[in-house]
Amino acid sequence: MEIQFDTYYNFEEIVARIKWLAQQNPQILEIIEIGKSHEGYSVPLVVITNKNTGAHREKPAFWLDGNIHSIEITSSAMVLYFIHRCSMEYGSDSFLTELIDNNTFYCLPCINPDGMMRALAAKPAFYRSGVRKYGEDGNYLYVEDIDGDGRILQMRIEDPTGDWKISPLDSRFMIKRAPTDRESEGPFYRLFAEGLVPEYDGETIPQIFPHQLDFNRNFPIKWRPEGEQQGAGDFGGSEIEVQNVIRFIAKHPNIFAAITYHTYSRVFIRAYSDRPDSEMHTSDLWMFEDLEEIARNTTQYPTVSGYHDFKYHPKEIISGAFDDWAYEHRGIFTFTVELWDLPTAAGISEKNDQKNFIGWFRKHPTTDDNKILQFVLDNAPHTLAEWREFDHPQLGKVEIGGLEHLFSWRNPPQHLLEDELRPHFDCVMQMASLAPKLEFYQQTVTPLDDHLYKIEVILHNSGYFSTYVSHQAKNMQIVKPIYVDLTLPAGAQLISGKKRVDIGQLEGRSNKNSMTYYHSPTDNRKKIEWIVRIADDDNITVTAKSCKAGSIECSLHLRQNT
Ligand SMILES: [Zn+2]
Q1: How far is the centre of ligand 1, averaged over its atoms, from the C-alpha of 66 (Å)?
Q2: N or C: which end of the chain has fewer CB within 10 A?
């Protein structure tokens, strides 16, 4: 089956491809249905791990998801790209193979099939997230293809008080009217997304329907109702698509890190959304910084906290978002990754260099618009359309044309998609390589007396993160202590030690300083001792289970020295 990344697949096409990949790679891929969408689509999650080296739940896991927002289709392409690369390179790339042997990747290409299918329909319609009826209809604009050309362009209406004008460089491209532009310098226009206004009152030009569900405000973390935050749903976790995600993650405490993909801005965003970094556990903040360094090095994207650098309004915070929920309630190091950015692709580097992600939208020089136009002409000329008159069923005479948002602003033009995705594969792999890893460091059996043996087992964490990964996970009691169990054959007798030993947690390399004279304590190891009475030539089994660092088992053969 053809799987390419110079095109966008809709949900059904993605499902066909992951099923095919799972059939081709049964040793490392498995599909689990995590629930249904509002309209009844089965929502598949791809589990990637080498099944021969242990079950997926018994390994540290990385979560990836996409398309919580309907039209951010680059995000599901990213998750499919990740699954595809794993399938193709397992067994040949040693770094990747080792990661898939030792870890699990939970990959959810599309949280929200209903909205995504609308975005890529033959007659598309754009929803923020879900399509469930929510909020009162009214004099609003519903974004959809109204002239039947299969795409959603812009609508404009000439208006002397309008705030848009035609670019002198290209008549299809609209630019902002300057504050000092006089009416006589027109024509000026009102600019809208292509769409319908079913309840048009005949005079007020509507805004886009505000009562659309936004699943990324519906997570049960400091959830706020409609009056405080639009689209947040009826209550925290009210939406079935969100429930699918939180139920799965709550049942899989082995998840230690997560990325939820969105578009656009080219930025990694992490918790908190609602308060400063100074309120985060300091060690957790340092761990986030380690991951952010990987993100910057592999993708060249900047990294920010939502609160400090990615607020839609300087005095407003968002809540009910996946990344806050996953970190605060589950202790998972989580990033919201905004893939793609038309302005930076067009060479407007100051925007991201100065972390002016949102402020730029409010105000930027016209020269920036010219750069964007040039980029579109060079890279995506098919997304620019001539303005044509159209008899709008509610608004009367309008013009439709301008820029196709879906493959310019919101997602990269098709032929640039793979370039955008590629660095993020390496980013995830490098982040995953920081996982904790529980191992047997040493096992010693000493015969003491007739049928009496001393057993010493040293466990260690050979990973970078501690076995609890984040202090938040420990504080929220998501991680249980590491339990070491001794299993004896029938007739054997435990003389000293406990059958189940709680060894707490093991540190990793992440808590060590970088000074060259600094000491490196072995706080990643613990020793357990037992004395057993047992028949010669018998075996005992030692198992160790860590919530996030994996489960391991070894068998020891007991024999007297002769
Ligand atoms: Zn989004």
Answers
A1: 9
A2: C
